[in-house]
């Protein structure tokens, strides 16, 4: 499998990574434990998670979606809908950044809302774009860079 053929799989892997980060955060908040992931307290963890999601969505909006639109013009309505989703998620992320200022029940509710939004978004994106991403071939280096940037992460 070529690097480009695996691109859709990279998207899925990054979504799994984000789901796991959010699930860890939710589990700790629901258990009433002091939130600490990799030594980060609740506020730092929320900011780190929010940054990862924001970078991912910005990379899609500014790069990957443009490449897909050029190669698959029929996907433009789907890409526009996903971009609108990114704005909804951004609003939820702004509320998550202030999670440490909320009561525990409100923390759980905000995290549940974000989890539902992201799950719906990720599932739709994977269903609609996975084959298109994996079907891209023969991209020039500038397009290839625009395409791969938003899906990098370190574990």
UniProtKB/TrEMBL annotation:
InterPro entries: Hemerythrin-like (IPR012312)
Residue ranges annotated for the Hemerythrin-like domain, each copy included: 10-131
Protein name according to UniProt: Hemerythrin-like domain-containing protein
Organism: Kribbella koreensis
